[in-house]
Specification:
There is one protein chain. The chain is α/β, with parallel strands linked by helices and 496 residues long. It folds into 3 domains: 9-129, Rossmann fold; 136-270, Response regulator (Rossmann fold, 3-Layer(aba) Sandwich); 274-494, Rossmann fold. Helix content is 43%, strand content 18%. The protein has helices spanning 17-29, 40-50, 66-76, 90-98, 111-129, 136-144, 157-170, 181-189, 208-218, 233-241, 254-270, 284-298, 317-331, 351-362, 377-389, 420-428, 442-456, and strands at 9-13, 33-37, 54-58, 81-85, 103-106, 149-153, 174-178, 196-200, 224-228, 246-249, 274-279, 302-307, 334-337, 366-370, 395-399, 412-415, 461-469, 493-494. It has an 8-stranded mixed sheet with strand order 16-17-15-14-11-12-13-18, sandwiched between helices. Helix 14 packs across helix 15 (377-389). The two termini are 43 Å apart.
C-alpha cells in the first residue's frame, strides 16, 4: 500500500477452502484487510456489513451463485468487483462485465496479475468517487461519535441494511431501520427523537415522496433524504416539491450518502431551538414543563435541565440525583445539578452565578423557569435569579408548580397531547416521591392537563406565563442544546 494510506478492505467470496486461504495470505501479505466467506449468502451479507473497498467473487458458490450475488450488490453499491472463476470463455467474460463486474480473472490466476488488477481498480474507484479508503480504526471511531439520530425506511432488506451500516459506521449516526413509511411515521408519532429520515423513493405502500410530505406535516423542518435509481431532473424536482431536503442516486456511494445527510441535518440544526429549563429541586421542571420539553426533544431541539439543589429535605439526595439523571435520559437532555441548600436557596448570589454560568454554556433561545406566583421560597428565589441571569434571552416562560398561588395566570399553553403518556412515564422516574406527594398521582396529572386542554381546544395542555417574549414564539414550543462535559463553577456539575 502507498505510504501512510489506510489498508483497503477486501471481501473474498470463495467456496474452495484452499483457494480461499491462499487468497487471504496473498492479500494480507500485501497490506490488505480481508473478510472471507464460503457461500454466496454470507458473502452478500459481508459486503453489506463490512462496506469493503473491493470484492473478489467466485461464480460457482453454494446458497447464492456469483451472478446472483453480483446482481444484488449492484442494486445498492458501486463497490469494485473482480469475478474470479474457472469459467473463462469469452461469453462468460462478456456476461460478467455486462452484469456489473469491473474485472474478470480466470483460474488458475497469477498472483501478480491479481494484485495489479486490484490496485488499478482501487485507484480508479478512489479517483472517480473522491472517496478515500477508510481505515477500520476510523470506522470504530466514527461509530462511537454519534452525531445524530436517523430513521431509515426501506422495504428492501438489503438496501435497508446497507443504508443503516453506512450511516452508522461511516456517518457516526444512531440509526433506527424500519421496513416501511408507515413504521417511520409511527415512530415519529411516538415522539422519537430524530434528526433526519432516509428513505427509498420506490416502496410498496406509501412511497418515499409521500413519506417526505407526511414527515413535513408531522415534524415541520425535519429533513428527509430520498434514495432513487432515477437521477433525472424531473425526479429531483418532484422530490423537492414533496418536501425532501436532498436525494441520492443509486448505486449508493457511502461518501455521497453521508454528505447528503450531514448537509440536511446541519441546515436543520441551524434552525433548532436551544432550551434551558430551570428548577429549584428534582422533579420541579418535569412537573411544570415536562410535556413541553418532551415536545422539544421530539422535534430534535437541544434540551438542558438545570436543577439548583439535590432536594435533600424531600428525601435521600443520592437517590434523588439518580432519579434526576434517569429523567434527563428520558428527555434526551443534558442535566446540570447544583448544590445549593434545599429550602434555603438565596435570591441573589450564588444562585445568579450558577444560572449565568449555565446560560453562557448553553446559549438558550428559550427558557422555562418557576413562576414568581408561588408559595415556596426556593421557587421564588430561583425565579428571581433566573430573570436576571437570562436577561439577554428573548423568550422566557414561567411554569406552574404544585405550590403555585391563585395569582398564577397563564396566557400561553403547550399542546402535550402527543406526549402525555410519556410525561407520566417521565415523572415515574422520581419513584422516591411517588406515594409521598399527592401532586404526582397519575389521575391528578392527567386531570389537570385535561382541564387546560379543554380551555384551549386541545386534549392535554401545559400552562405557561409569558415572562419575556421579545422575539416571535415558535409555533408549538419545540426546544433545547447539548452541553459539554465538565464541572461548572459554584459547585454545579454536568451529570449527563
Amino acid at each position: 500500500m502507498a505510504g501512510g494510506q489506510s489498508p483497503a478492505r477486501v471481501v473474498l467470496i470463495e467456496d474452495d477452502a484452499d483457494i480461499r486461504r491462499a487468497l487471504e495470505l496473498l492479500l494480507t501479505e500485501h497490506g490488505y484487510q480481508t473478510f472471507s466467506r464460503q457461500d454466496g449468502r454470507s458473502g452478500l451479507q459481508a459486503v453489506l456489513e463490512e462496506q469493503p473497498d473491493l470484492v473478489v467473487l467466485d461464480v460457482g458458490l453454494p446458497e447464492l451463485d456469483g451472478w446472483q450475488v453480483l446482481q444484488r450488490v449492484r442494486r445498492h453499491s458501486d463497490v469494485p468487483v473482480i469475478m474470479l472463476t474457472a469459467e473463462g470463455g469469452p461469453s462468460d467474460v462478456v456476461r460478467g462485465l455486462r452484469s456489473g463486474a469491473d474485472d474478470y480473472l480466470t483460474k488458475p490466476y497469477r498472483a501478480n496479475e491479481l494484485l495489479a488488477r486490484i490496485e488499478a481498480l482501487l485507484r480508479r474507484h478512489r479517483e472517480s468517487s473522491g472517496e478515500p479508503v477508510v481505515a477500520a480504526a476510523d470506522l470504530v471511531r466514527l461509530a462511537r461519535e454519534r452525531r445524530g439520530r436517523v430513521i431509515v425506511a426501506d422495504d428492501d432488506p438489503d438496501l435497508r441494511r446497507l443504508l443503516e451500516l453506512v450511516l452508522t459506521q461511516r456517518g457516526g449516526y444512531s440509526v433506527t431501520a424500519l421496513a416501511s413509511a408507515e413504521e417511520a411515521l409511527l415512530a415519529l408519532g411516538d415522539g422519537s427523537v430524530c434528526d433526519a429520515v432516509v428513505s427509498d423513493i420506490h416502496m410498496s405502500g406509501r412511497n418515499g415522496l409521500e413519506l417526505a410530505a407526511a414527515v413535513q406535516a408531522a415534524r415541520p423542518g425535519l429533513p428527509t433524504v430520498l434514495v432513487t435509481g432515477d437521477a433525472r431532473m424531473s425526479t429531483a424536482v418532484e422530490a423537492m416539491r414533496a418536501g425532501a431536503a436532498d436525494f441520492v442516486a443509486k448505486p449508493i456511494r457511502p461518501a455521497a450518502l453521508v454528505e447528503a445527510v450531514q448537509r440536511a441535518i446541519s441546515r436543520f440544526q441551524d434552525r433548532r431551538e436551544r432550551v434551558l429549563a430551570i428548577g429549584a429541586h428534582p422533579d420541579d421542571v418535569e412537573i411544570g414543563a415536562g410535556g413541553a420539553l418532551l415536545v422539544h426533544a421530539a422535534q430534535a431541539d437541544e434540551v438542558t435541565v438545570l436543577t439548583m439543589s439535590a432536594g435533600a429535605t424531600g428525601g435521600d439526595p443520592a437517590r434523588r440525583q439518580e432519579e434526576s439523571v434517569r429523567a434527563a435520559a428520558l428527555l434526551d437532555a443534558r442535566l446540570y445539578l447544583g448544590e445549593l441548600p434545599d429550602t434555603a436557596i438565596p435570591e441573589g448570589r450564588p444562585t445568579i452565578d450558577v444560572v449565568e454560568e449555565v446560560v453562557a454554556a448553553v446559549r438558550p433561545t428559550i427558557v422555562y423557569v418557576h413562576s414568581s406566583h408561588d408559595h415556596h421560597q426556593d421557587h421564588r428565589a430561583v425565579h428571581s435569579a433566573a430573570m436576571i441571569a437570562t436577561r439577554r434571552v428573548g423568550r422566557v416562560y414561567g411554569y406552574r408548580s404544585p405550590s403555585a398561588t391563585v395569582d398564577f395566570r397563564p396566557t400561553r399553553f403547550v399542546d402535550v397531547g402527543s406526549v402525555m403518556s410519556r410525561k407520566i412515564a417521565l415523572l415515574a422516574a422520581f419513584a422516591s416521591q411517588i406515594g409521598q406527594r399527592d401532586y404526582l398521582a397519575e389521575d391528578l396529572l392527567i386531570a389537570q392537563a385535561r382541564v387546560h386542554g379543554t380551555a384551549t381546544g386541545t386534549t392535554y395542555a401545559e400552562p405557561l406565563e409569558v415572562l419575556r417574549e421579545s422575539t416571535p414564539a415558535s409555533a408549538a414550543f419545540d426546544v433545547a442544546p447539548q452541553m459539554k462535559d465538565g464541572d461548572m463553577k459554584d459547585g454545579t456539575r454536568a451529570l449527563t
